[in-house]
């Protein structure tokens, strides 16, 4: 079992740092024009996508895991909202160029090859389109044991610093506007915001709490974040596609 398997089994709706509380905080602070076409990449079980659809936006949501999308579709049915659900890879988006006004991600790019994914994000955005990408960032040099532990548990090759993230956006030909509200990761970030915004549509697999692998993975995650939080921060990367296609 890997970390993404754990999230799928638990049906987690907001596994990113800060949880759904951070999502709501951001969406209150940023304005999308009426009629905006939004693509969420790495939508998971669809909590953010369904919320945006409920606000009246035209939402397409993509994830690479069928188990996540099954739960996302069920969530949309329960919430009575319409989202176009698409199975696909962040590094090879199955959409024509210049399709979306907004591209939204929450703790996705760190798990994939950013040098392949970011040009794809830019390709499917319309000229003038906006990228909003909430990601984990290293706020200091990671000791080798910490870097190795993060890589082994989460399957990520590296956790870029804020400066490194912004350089990746520039190299992908985004006009970079910075990082929205970078903050330190709390040691209990897994639970952050969960009490303020409980998820009434979370779908947990029936066997999840009887599975010893789930328990081990969950405990490893808690131990690692408690150990590594002081090295990490998170924020929303802001990028704009320039006027060229």
Automatic annotation (TrEMBL):
GO BP term, example: methylation
Keywords, ordered alphabetically: Methyltransferase, Transferase
The keyword Calcium is assigned to this record: no
Pfam entry (one): Methyltransf_11
GO terms for MF: S-adenosylmethionine-dependent methyltransferase activity
Domain of life, per lineage: Bacteria
Keyword Nucleotidyltransferase attached: no
Identification of the protein by name: Methylase
Originating species: Effusibacillus dendaii
